[in-house]
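Narrative of activities, Objective 1.

The group set out to show that a structural description can be obtained from nothing but a protein's sequence at a throughput compatible with the screening campaign. Below is one input-output pair from the validation batch, recorded exactly as produced.
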Amino acid sequence: MNALPTTQQSPVNTLTSAQKTQLSKLEKRLRRHVGQAIAEYNMIEDGDKIMVCVSGGKDSYAMLSILMILKTLAPIKFDLIAVNLDQKQPGFPEHILPEYLASLGIEYKVVEEDTYSIVMDKVPEGKTTCSLCSRLRRAILYKTAKELGATKIALGHHRDDMIETLMLNMFHGGKIKAMPAKLGSDNGEHVVIRPLAFCKEEELIQYAALKNFPIIPCNLCGSQPNLERQNIKHMLNGWDKNHPGRIESMFTAMKNIVPSHMCDSELFDFKNITRESGIINGGDTAFDKEEIISPTVNKPAQTIRTHELTKHAIDITEVK
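Output recorded for this entry:
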């Protein structure tokens, strides 16, 4: 473990005046998003020791940067310790993270474990290594958190990661399940938090460029191009380009789940619904009240609301 002199990283001197203004506005926006997530899910409490997992990617760098700012502004006291896991991947630049973390003056620890050799030995050639690699990495991080006495483990997943996970589980796992903003670890010993849960990847990319973070490639193991997650990301990016606002709506939907209008009988007691149950969550409606376009009214592009559809019901049902 290293405790180094406090030399908070200064802004990049090469930024133009316009870029500095952009950085200031972007940092405030990210800080607001992170603060909202922390407050909504009670991610950080007074006296917490947060183990911030730093991989060398844009997201974890941004998370650490914003948390360090919030630490100075928060009305409560909490500590941060940055942790990096060196998995001994060929070509991994071992000097970058220690030098960068030293420049911040933050307490940090680099854990060295050769999981790369284990994964290469166990996974057949051509198969994706990420699943096994992730399990090994998590186990080591949990062990490290216990050794450090950390009360929370902070991971750098953002809003887009959470949506992608939702889609992956729907398409390939048969579950409506995403990444939680806060949950107990799978070994039951730790609390895992995702402070970037409300942050857009696009903004994190811009922030990383303006801050000039020393990014370490995430494809050192060579398995990344085969990931199904990349296909999901490409699909979502296409939706976002062609249908602005759709991604925001999807994330909002993840926060507005209505069990009575799904099909999971363990989450809602469908069996005991009777006529005496009353109207539950608006009753059996196909859509919530929202603006939609109907081709059946006199004006082809006229916008009407769902609650106005009753008078047009005959026209709508007869259109083939």
